[in-house]
Design brief:
By secondary structure, the protein is an all-alpha fold. The chain has 12 helices and no strands. It has one domain. The model has no long low-confidence stretch (mean pLDDT 82).
Length: 283
């Protein structure tokens, strides 16, 4: 018996049905998030408090950790390698803060379904809420970590200028990108635990393929296409330019950052919801 085929004439209707199902699923999930908004808030608070529960400095580590890393990288790259870049500390910190948010939140979110399996196996809960709570708590940590950056901008940088008003948009793009990566990792890690370890391994080379600790103008031209295949390049540059240069990023750069973020979120969302019905059998 021959397998059924979708004719060319029926493809638009088929794609339309898929889009309709996706829209319905998104609307359902939004209603679920609103219904469980108190749980989401409690999970975010739990992530923030558990991280620093037995720490004397508590949330101050959100400020101190990036500053200590900045001092080390500034000594190594601005002094030893002598990049000769003005305000290197601001250049580095504006990229590193964003990178740290993405790497830390996605790693933490990758474990979220595995760690909460016993909870949603006993009562009904939207499983995606565990991923969202981790990324949102990371966003709050990022907000705290940006405080010393803006103090440096005020003291030794270009000061407060109108271009800074643009920053919420690249922050939104970065949030959406992180959610997409987190949804993908959290869902696939349920079935293949090694994915988390593999992801942790690639984070280091991924960071060095992103112009965070070095200026883009020192990269040989033949390697620039490799750098520009990196989605974090667009997110970091969109966020950094208003801070370092005091100008708005190029429109094409913004469109690339937005397109990559939305595509990553869409793919992560689709993968998560395709696999989520099977979570109960593996956690």
């Amino acid at each position: 018996m021959s397998s059924p085929r979708i004719s060319l004439d029926s493809r638009p209707a088929f794609l339309g049905n898929r889009r309709a199902r996706m829209d319905t699923m998104i609307q359902h999930d939004l209603r679920e998030l609103l219904r469980y908004k108190d749980l989401l808030l409690n999970l975010v608070i739990r992530h923030l408090t558990v991280r620093y529960r037995r720490s004397m400095l508590g949330f101050c580590w959100s400020l101190l950790n990036p500053l200590l890393n900045t001092v080390v990288f500034t000594i190594v790259f601005a002094t030893v390698f002598r990049f000769g870049m003005k305000d290197f500390i601001i250049y580095f910190l504006s990229g590193y803060q964003l990178w740290n948010f993405v790497s830390q939140s996605t790693v933490d979110a990758a474990h979220s379904i595995l760690l909460n399996g016993q909870l949603f196996n006993k009562i009904y809960l939207p499983t995606s809420i565990f991923v969202y709570s981790v990324v949102l708590s990371g966003l709050i940590n990022l907000g705290l970590a940006l405080v010393p950056l803006f103090l440096l901008v005020l003291v030794i940088g270009k000061g407060l200028h109108p271009a800074l008003v643009f920053l919420p948009l690249p922050l939104l793009f970065t949030l959406l990108f992180s959610l997409g990566v987190s949804l993908t990792l959290a869902s696939t890690a349920v079935f293949f635990h090694d994915i988390i370890n593999f992801y942790k391994i690639i984070l280091m080379p991924w960071m060095y393929l992103t112009p965070i600790v070095y200026p883009l103008n020192i990269v040989p031209e033949k390697y620039l296409p490799l750098i520009k295949l990196n989605p974090m390049y667009y997110l970091v540059e969109c966020f950094r330019q208003p801070i370092v240069a005091g100008t708005l990023p190029d429109v094409n750069l913004v469109l690339m950052a937005g397109g990559i973020s939305l595509a990553t979120l869409f793919v992560g969302y689709a993968i998560f919801h395709r696999l989520s019905d099977k979570f109960v059998y593996y956690v």
